[in-house]
Design brief:
The structure is a single chain. The chain has 620 residues and is α/β, with parallel strands linked by helices. It has 3 domains: 6-40, no CATH class; 44-200 and 253-344 and 557-620, FAD/NAD(P)-binding domain, CATH 3.50.50; 207-242 and 354-462 and 488-546, Glucose Oxidase, domain 3 (2-Layer Sandwich). The protein has helices spanning 6-14, 21-38, 48-53, 68-75, 94-97, 155-163, 171-181, 212-223, 255-260, 314-324, 330-335, 371-384, 430-434, 438-448, 490-502, 511-515, 536-545, 598-618, and strands at residues 56-62, 83-86, 182-184, 202-204, 239-242, 247-248, 251-252, 269-272, 275-282, 289-296, 299-311, 327-328, 342-343, 354-363, 397-401, 413-420, 451-460, 468-470, 481-483, 519-521, 548-549, 581-583. α1 runs antiparallel to α2 (21-38), α4 runs parallel beside α18 (598-618) and α7 packs across α18 (598-618). It comes from Papilio xuthus.
Length: 620
């Protein structure tokens, strides 16, 4: 990777001197712009040599993602503590940092590119019936490749956690940790101050200049009875709104940029990059954590943690690491000849937000996705961090609805309204990147060839279905087996269909959508061709063929109180039946939240780090 060396950039440009000074100047300017956006100097340096010299740390944090970066930042605030943060990926790059290009990170080296096992009830339209589960593999983890929506979920999500015995996790108790992280761009009123902060590391932004198509969507939703709200993270989540995003000055504000870049020179924080933790080590004949074994540059490194090991590897990698280390379901581990350290339901309780799309199209001969337009927009972004690449507008409208109860204060379904110009595949091949069969990928291109699209993601927020993660083998470099089990419980799909009929499917009848000439448009899928498009059978077929993940796996190291046999960690996030390990990431969620999971995972990082500091500072 180019490291933004000014001598190097000059040398590269000078090698093209024969093409003229204008080209040289342009190339130098582009290199400088790339350097400013994603240069290696922005991130903590790799400290492999320091680890070799002294592999002893007070705390080891595995995973520099949405939670791990937060934990490393907060623990290293104590100068006498020595912290090691280990990340399997490397630095963010130009593609991760450009907001509008987030889809283009799928299947690249910053993506673990997981694929759950084939399903009969969902994901039928994919090659081998295996849907796509992108997960971030870089500093910032999935916060470096996600869509940057800042959504906290519903108050009742956290009150449910607390009611089930997770002391300290009610909404009122977690709210201060949301506020602690946040630096919101909005001018706060007295009411907003109850919910938002301006002193945190994480920049939360919303451009208040809404685009006409966003106004059209909000008006259409209002016509069908879904009120517009100002802030889904405030007093009331129910309704439609223009979302807040984790973007600052036209650049993605991942936890890498928010929590690590700003402390990259902190002397007591060492970061190992492109380093993969393969096993947790224990003291001989005990269940007391000793440290970890790391693969790095073809070598194995053993590192010791004197106080605690914090596993923040995410809802897939965390259970994989725990099971490889002998922490998991006894029968499963013994079947792979893994010595059992602690018999725990690791990998169970897997939940995710699945959705199927509903497409509205409006015919036009105009395309904003020509290569010349893409090129000029890209140059504008590179030099000024403004323009179409600097935001996810006009795809910012989200809504939270409940078809079962008009007076509900918590939603059944979330809608993401994505807006695509004609021929969007010139820029991003939505269906191809996800691994759909060529027939389906082509059908979407056919629909989008000469039409603008409002693409509504119908997202089931509180699935009753549960999946699981198992090891495929003892080889740590082999992806685990993921069983998503979408729609395993029939009620899940029925909730989606009920809400679609009450809300998203009737938008074409609104004056707002008619004003834009947007009509309901279905891809002509062979599997669904024999069903009447007005029937539930057609909708069900479409949902099972064109199933997507919203990339929100949680729950595989469930938090629960003493006596809960399904729990892996306690409410202090301490791993049960062993000493010295905590899990701090989305895997601890007992039940999935009603919204995007990045902000709640950052909150978990803040709260988890606070509990660690309180314990060790009190007992030092």
């Amino acid at each position: 990777m180019w490291e933004c060396d000014p001598i190097l950039s000059s040398g590269v440009a000078n090698s093209y001197h024969s093409t003229g000074p204008l080209f040289v100047h342009t190339l130098q300017s582009l290199l400088a712009a790339q350097c400013a956006l994603s240069g290696d100097y922005l991130w903590p340096s790799d400290r492999t040599e320091a680890v070799f010299n002294d592999p002893h740390y007070d705390f080891i944090v595995v995973g520099a993602g949405s939670a791990g970066a937060v934990v490393a930042n907060r623990l290293s605030e104590i100068p006498e503590w020595k912290i090691l943060l280990i990340e399997a990926g490397g630095n963010p790059n130009m593609a991760t940092e450009t907001p509008s290009g987030f889809y283009n990170n799928i299947n690249t080296y910053v993506d673990w590119a997981y694929k759950p096992q084939p399903q009969e009830l969902a994901c039928r339209g994919y090659k081998n019936k295996r849907c796509a589960w992108p997960r971030g593999k870089a500093l910032g983890g999935s916060s470096s490749i996600n869509a940057m929506y800042y959504v906290r979920g519903n108050k009742l999500d956290y009150d449910e956690w607390a009611a089930n015995g997770n002391t300290g996790w009610s909404y009122e108790e977690v709210l201060p940790y949301f506020i602690k992280s946040e630096n919101i761009s909005t001018v706060l009123t007295e009411e907003n101050k109850k919910y938002h902060g301006k002193d945190g590391y994480l920049h939360v932004n919303r451009n208040e200049l809404t685009q006409p198509v966003e106004e059209m969507i909000l008006s259409g939703m209002s016509e069908i009875g879904v009120n517009e709200i100002d802030d889904a993270n405030g007093a009331n989540q129910m309704g439609a709104t223009v979302s807040y995003n984790t973007i600052k000055d036209g650049i993605r504000h991942s936890t890498a940029r928010a929590f690590l870049s700003v402390i990259k020179d902190r002397p007591n924080l060492h970061v190992l990059k492109d380093a993969y933790v393969t096993k947790i080590l224990f003291h001989t004949n005990t269940n007391k954590m000793k440290g970890v074994l790391i693969q790095k540059d073809g070598k194995e490194i053993q590192v010791i943690a004197k106080k605690e090991l914090i596993v923040s590897a995410g809802s897939i990698n965390t259970p994989q690491l725990l099971m490889l280390s002998g922490i998991g379901p006894r029968k499963h581990l013994e079947s792979l000849d893994i010595e059992v350290i602690a018999d725990l339901p690791v990998g169970e309780n897997l939940q995710d937000h699945a959705f199927f799309p509903i497409i509205y199209s409006s015919a036009t001969n105009e395309s904003l996705m020509t290569f010349s337009a893409i090129g000029s927009n890209f140059l504008e972004y590179m030099f000024t961090h403004t323009g179409k690449f600097s935001d996810i507008a006009p795809s910012r409208v989200i809504a939270f609805v409940n078809a079962s109860d008009p007076d509900a204060v918590s939603p059944e379904v979330q809608y993401h309204f994505s807006v695509y110009s004609p021929q969007v595949s010139n820029y991003i091949d939505l269906y191809g990147l996800h691994g759909f069969k060529e027939e389906i990928s082509q059908k979407f291109k056919d629909v989008n060839n000469n039409t603008y699209i409002v693409y509504i993601s119908n997202i089931l927020l509180k699935p009753k279905s549960r999946g699981k993660i198992l090891l495929k083998s003892k080889n740590p470099n082999e992806h685990p087996l993921i069983f998503a089990n979408y729609f395993q419980e029939p009620e899940d799909l029925q909730v989606l269909l009920k809400n679609a009929r009450k809300f998203s499917l009737i938008l074409e009848n609104t004056a707002a959508f008619k004003s834009g000439n947007f009509i309901l448009d279905w891809m002509d899928l062979e599997a669904c061709r024999n069903f009447d498009k007005a029937s539930d059978e057609f909708l069900e077929c479409h949902a099972r063929e064109v199933t997507f993940s919203l990339y929100h796996p949680v729950g595989t190291a469930k938090m629960g109180p003493d006596g809960d046999e399904t729990a892996v960690v306690d409410p202090e996030l301490r791993l049960r039946k062993v000493e010295g390990i905590r899990v701090i990431d989305a895997s601890i969620m007992p039940t999935i939240v009603s919204g995007n999971t990045n902000a709640p995972t950052i909150m978990i990082g803040e709260k988890g780090a606070s509990m660690i500091k309180e314990f060790w500072l009190k007992n030092k």
